[in-house]
Amino acid sequence: MAEEEKKEFWRWTETNWANKDIDWRKGKTITGGVDVGSVSSQAVIMVDGQLYASANTRTGYNSPQSAVNVMNWALEATDGMKLEDIKFTVGTGYGRVKVPFSNKAITEIACHARGANYMYGPSVRTVMDMGGQDLKAIRTDDKGKVLNFLMNEKCAAGTGRGMEVIADLLQVPIVEVGERSFDVDKEPPPVSTTCVLFAKAEMLGLLKKGYSVNQALAAYCSAMSYRVFTMIREVDVVEDFVITGGIAKNRGIVERLEGHLGLKSLKTEVDYQLAGAIGAALFGRVLYEKQK
Amino acid sequence: MIEDFKKIYENRHNYMKAWKAKNPDWKVLGYMCSYMPEEILYAAKVLPIRWLGGHEPQNVTEPHIMGMFCPFCRDVLAQGLLGKYDYCDAIGITHTCKHINQAYESMILHRGVDHFFIPTPSKMQDKQALPYYAGILKIFKEQLENWTGKKITEDDLKRGIAIVDENRRLMRQVYETRKADNPPISGLDSMYMVTASQMYDKQEVNKIIADVIKNELPGRKAKNDPGIRLMILGSEDDDTAFINMVENCGSSLVIDDHCTGSRYFWNTTEPGNDLMSVIADRYLKRPPCPIKDMPNRTRIPHIQGLAKEWNVAGAIVIQQKFCDPHELDKVAIVNGLKAVDVPTLYLEFDVTVPIGPFRIRVEAFLETLGSEDLF
Hints:
Chain A: GO terms for molecular function: benzoyl-CoA reductase activity; iron-sulfur cluster binding; metal ion binding. By secondary structure, chain A is α/β, with parallel strands linked by helices.
């Protein structure tokens, strides 16, 4: 097989990180948040409510093990912290009830709202979380409490996993998809279906018809952005508006969605995929203080 | 015993086969919609039992009914085509939605069963509806007489009305107990009770319900902590796996508005001289299916009243996927509940429901209703 065919174009960068400016040994309350999603898992460690360390990896077939792995990787980035130094851990995401070392499970909807409030500030009122297999449109108050939410039903079109499939099909590294989708002379019409399987067939047809790869990417990103747009409208989008989850890193979707909505989403330096785990760790802090 | 209703629900076919063997002078009619006038059937010594789905994947309906018809009608048809209800001597339906009518027509076409179609009025709020429907029921009575070869007397009709009304009164009594801060019966057991009432001989079910009311419910608590009080409403719903999941997430379902639930038994007949009019009047006045609830949407104030009286913190609005009547009511109902400060969670049901993804939505909904201060 040619080298090119073996490459996993869907593979995104897995990371771990710690803030070396924080001396965790001086912290009073160290809490953890673990978000075991359908496609990716994140762990964060917070010291007195400040983001101290994190890790972001792919979820394996064994979700408890994925939780252990991602937390271990976050710990590896720290200056000698061990799991037992974390006083309270909250699990969230699909695998939330199977995080072996968690003290409580809270849904990712609540955690993403709380995490977005931390990442972007109290002005956030609408959170669009675009994850591996879920789309969540969440309305929140100034504390990050969920007021209302909507999730996609059954179909995973418009989610990260669908984008991974398309990246592999077109042999474009997933991190380049957004950028390249704008490298077209004219925005092509969206593919007529967002069903991943049908979209695959339709895009192959477009390529045969003479579309460039970038045009095909633009057609897919456009269809996904419309799909997300029709869903998010149902929760009555109110500013400030933010996007979390892996798709938030894809400007091909983000900027098209912003265009449909007629508003810009806030930006942050924090990894967009960490929102759920950050919210979980912040809830952990409150719960730990309560139980003391 | 409360557990008996679950046994009837789960073993409905075995119960009915045994019942039929013990009652050779009765016939059995399977019906597909809660508007079936059961009083006349009991009067004719024809046991009405409601056909519900099996909640299992099936591969027999695709050639006969479109995939975009609601999963309930496809599941019901599957049960018929698979021979699960072969002990029924006939099937019957009233004029309701096209989807379930399609299941009925398909059964006749492919299984050649005896059948009865009752053209209930489309516009039940019209003045002409009562005399029209009373006349239709008279025709239905005569059709049954021809089928069974036995005359239905006034006394037979009074006996039929008494049996069905007794079930309605008992079910209302049970539902009243669910107003308590800590209800004596769960939403799941209530569902088993009301569906058992529809799928087995009411004369026997009524005795069990009366015994439960007298001997089991007083002082009973379904749960140590009932959690958040919820209402559930929408299309046909006997999805016990879903109900069980919701009640295991820190909540209690204390009231419903389903055709398989409270809408089925809510009102009794009112006294009158012409028994056909008495029966017709009862069905015209019952809490309606959305397809009959026009031009005025009378369900909205009814549902608001239930939410208030049963003191619910939130409501789960469900509909069978592709159920047009309920889909058209969704916005009005969600807005109606919002107007009385009852938040809603909307979910679409299929033959089987994905419990995991639904659990996330339910738990998140309960978190928004909960009092736990995490901020």
